[in-house]
Amino acid sequence: MKRYAAQDAGGRVMGKPVIGIDPSLNNTAYCVLWAGEPIVGKIGVGSKKGVPRLLHIERTTEKLLELYQPQLIVIEGYSHASAHQAHQAGELGGILRRLFHVYGIRWVDVAPGTLKKFVTGKGNADKSMILLNVYRRWGVELKNHDEADAFGLAKIGTYLLGADDSDLIRPQQEALKKIREKMKEGLL
């Protein structure tokens, strides 16, 4: 299997990748960033519902953690504006964060608006703009906005770990500053 290595601000290859996760009951997307092309995919659940669906997402995520052994996971935080299936989404979020804890992997929650601001420059951007802006900013062509969210989250992780951020625009720098402040306060 081909492995990739992320680079720090000095261009040195970091030992372990960053994984961005866009959790969803139907299409949890992930992006593994190391050097080279991103590894992007989704965890399909087919017709599974309830606990079998949650267990499937947990087992598949566990396989990703064992395969890539990330140094950091950046996961999209809960959307407080979405009441649809909020309890089920909370169960999924708890299962994933418990898994990260059990494996001893650091993780950071990024609010949906902060992710949008980092990728598009606007915290209230339409989801369709994320896919377009991932292509415009980083030249990465993805299939859907779930994969684009996961890529954006992983990108945030590389900057949190020291990637050169001199080319970031002001809204991206502001989004990272907000995340770093919450990390210092112990809120993430």
Structure notes:
- With about 190 residues, the protein is an alpha/beta fold.
- It has a single domain, classed as Ribonuclease H-like superfamily/Ribonuclease H (Nucleotidyltransferase, domain 5, 2-Layer Sandwich).
- It contains six helices and five strands.
- A five-stranded mixed sheet has the order 3-2-1-4-5.
- A hairpin with a 4-residue loop joins strand 1 and strand 2.
- The N terminus is likely disordered.
Brief characterization of the structure:
The chain has about 190 residues and is an alpha/beta fold.
Annotate the secondary structure layout.
Elements: E1 18-22, E2 27-33, E3 39-44, H1 50-68, E4 72-76, H2 86-102, E5 106-110, H3 112-120, H4 127-138, H5 145-160, H6 170-184
Parallel strand pairs: 1-4, 4-5
Antiparallel strand pairs: 1-2, 2-3
Helix pairs in contact: 1-2, 3-5, 3-6, 4-5
Mass-distribution shape:
globular
Over the alpha carbons, how many angstroms does the gyration radius reach?
16 Å
What is the SS-derived class?
alpha/beta
CATH architecture title: 2-Layer Sandwich
How many distinct domains?
1
What is the overall number of helices? 6
CATH superfamily: Ribonuclease H-like superfamily/Ribonuclease H
Please provide the ordered H/E string of secondary-structure elements: EEEHEHEHHHH
CATH topology: Nucleotidyltransferase, domain 5
> Helical amount among residues, as a percent range?
40-55%
Low-confidence stretches: 1-7
Portion of residues in beta strands equals 5-15%
